[in-house]
Design a protein that fits this description.
The complex is a heterodimer of chains A (about 325) and B (about 70). In chain A, about 70% of the residues lie in helices and about 0% in strands. Chain A contains 14 helices and no strands. The longest helix of chain A is centred in the middle third of the chain and has 28 residues. Chain B has about 70 residues and is mainly alpha-helical. The chains are: A mainly alpha (about 325), B mainly alpha (about 70). Chains A and B meet through helix 8, helix 9, helix 12 and helix 13 of A and helix 1 and helix 4 of B.
C-alpha cells in the first residue's frame, strides 16, 4: 500500500517546525525521541498517526486536506507531549523518555512540545478566518483541562478500591475521549464542515478516543514484563474491574490481595502471570475488547450522513483501533 | 453508558462451557436472544470472531489473547 503523500508532507512540516523553533534547544535528542516511535508520523510506515487524523476528517467533509496540516502538526506535538507526561505520571514504561534522560528533561521536553502544538496552530492564520482560529485554540484549551481532570482521576484510582465501571468509563471519556474529540472537531471546523458535520465528527472523535483507551487498557492487562503493563502496578482498568466482579469470591479476594501488592510494587513475574490468567479466564479481556468495539461502532455510526467515498480514511482508522499504538495511559 | 447487555452476555459465556460451545458453533441465536442494540450486536459478532480463532482457545485458557 502506497504511503499517503500527505503523511510525508506532515513529516517534513514537523521537521521544519523543529528547525525553525527549536534550533537552540539543548536537548534535541530527547525532543526527537519523543516524536519518534509507534504511532508517530516521523516513523516510516502506514499505520495510524495522530497527525493524519485531521487529514481524514478534512477528507470526510470533502475539503482539501492541506488546509488542516497545521492541525496535524499540532496533534502530533500535543500527543507526543502527553505521552511523555503520561509515562512520568505512570512511572512504569521501560522505554519512557524519563528513564533515559531523567524526569526534569522529560518534563521540559513535554512542556516544549505543548508550546510547539500551540505554535503549529498559529500557522492556521491567513488560511482560515480569525474566528475559527480563536475557536480552535479555545477547544484545545478546554480539551486539555478536561484531559487533565481525567488523568488525575486515573491517578487517584490507583489508590482506590471503591470505583466501578461507570466511574472508569467517565474517566476514560475525560482522559482520552476529550482529546480525540478536540482533534476531530477542530479539523472539521477548519475544513469548513457544516454544523451537523462538525457535531458528528466531534462525537466520532470522542467514541474513537474511548475505543482507543480501552484497547490500550486491554493490552496493558494482557502484555507482560516487556511493557511493564498495568497489572504490575495493580491498576484496575476495565478488564480487571470485570474480573473482580465475575470471579468467584475466593478468586476475587485473591485478586484484590495481589492487586494491593501491585500498588506497593511488590509483584513477581508469577504474580503478574496469575493476574493475567485470572483476568483472561473470567472473560475480562474479551469483555473489555467488546466494550471497545461498542465505542468503535458508535464512532462509525456518526458517518451515516457522509459520502461513503469521503469517509474511507476515517472508517479504516476506526476499524484499525487496537492494531496500532493507541492513546497511552 | 454501562453496557449491561454485553456484560451479562460475556459473564455467561465464561461461566457456562456449554453456552460458550454453542456460541462458537452458531453465534446468531444467542446474540439474537440477547436483545442487543445494533452496535452491541456487531460488537458481539466481533467477539465471536476473536473467540473462534484457532489460537484463541475456546476454553478461554489461551496462552495469549491478541487484540484483532
Amino acid at each position: 500500500m502506497a504511503v499517503d503523500p500527505l503523511r510525508k508532507c506532515l513529516a517534513v512540516a514537523i521537521h521544519d517546525l523543529l528547525a525553525n523553533e527549536t534550533s537552540e534547544f539543548p536537548a534535541a535528542i530527547p525532543l526527537h525521541s519523543a516524536l519518534v516511535g509507534p504511532g508517530k508520523i516521523l516513523v516510516d510506515g502506514h499505520g495510524f498517526t495522530w497527525g493524519m487524523l485531521p487529514v481524514a476528517v478534512a477528507r470526510a467533509v470533502e475539503a482539501a486536506p492541506s488546509i488542516v496540516l497545521p492541525l496535524g502538526i499540532s496533534a502530533e506535538c500535543l500527543m507526543a507531549a502527553l505521552d511523555v507526561l503520561d509515562d512520568i505520571e505512570d512511572g512504569d514504561a521501560t522505554g519512557a523518555l524519563w528513564r533515559s534522560h531523567g524526569l526534569a528533561t522529560a518534563a521540559n521536553v513535554s512542556t516544549l512540545l505543548l508550546f510547539l502544538a500551540q505554535t503549529a496552530l498559529g500557522q492556521l492564520a491567513g488560511s482560515v478566518e480569525d474566528g475559527c482560529v480563536v475557536a480552535v485554540h479555545a477547544l484545545l484549551a478546554r480539551a486539555g483541562v478536561v484531559a487533565c481532570i481525567g488523568q488525575q482521576e486515573d491517578l487517584d484510582f490507583m489508590q482506590r478500591d471503591d470505583f466501578g465501571e461507570e466511574a472508569y468509563l467517565r474517566m476514560v471519556g475525560r482522559k482520552a475521549g476529550a482529546l480525540v474529540q478536540y482533534i476531530c472537531q477542530a479539523a472539521a471546523l477548519v475544513a469548513g464542515g457544516s454544523e451537523r458535520q462538525v457535531t458528528a465528527l466531534a462525537a466520532l472523535g470522542h467514541n474513537l478516543g474511548m475505543a482507543m483507551q480501552i484497547a490500550n487498557d486491554v493490552a496493558g492487562a494482557s502484555v507482560e514484563s516487556e511493557r511493564r503493563g498495568d497489572l504490575w502496578t495493580g491498576k484496575r482498568t476495565l478488564p480487571v474491574l470485570f474480573a473482580l466482579d465475575a470471579a468467584s469470591p475466593e478468586v476475587a479476594g485473591e485478586l484484590r490481595r495481589v492487586l494491593g501488592r501491585g500498588r506497593q510494587g511488590r509483584l513477581s513475574s508469577s504474580d503478574v502471570a496469575w493476574l493475567q490468567t485470572a483476568v483472561e479466564v473470567t472473560g475480562g479481556l474479551e469483555y473489555a475488547m467488546t466494550v471497545a468495539d461498542c465505542f468503535r461502532e458508535r464512532a462509525l455510526a456518526q458517518l451515516t450522513d457522509f459520502s461513503l467515498g469521503a469517509v474511507q480514511d476515517l472508517v479504516h482508522l476506526v476499524n484499525g483501533v487496537g492494531d496500532a499504538e493507541p492513546a497511552k495511559g | 453508558m454501562v453496557t449491561t447487555t454485553i456484560r451479562t452476555f460475556v459473564q455467561r459465556l465464561f461461566t457456562d462451557a456449554d453456552r460458550r460451545a454453542a456460541f462458537l458453533r452458531d453465534p446468531r441465536a444467542l446474540i439474537q436472544a440477547a436483545n442487543a442494540s445494533g452496535e452491541e450486536t456487531r460488537a458481539l459478532f466481533r467477539l465471536h470472531d476473536r473467540m473462534a480463532r484457532p489460537e484463541s482457545g475456546a476454553s478461554g485458557h489461551s496462552d495469549s489473547v491478541r487484540w484483532p
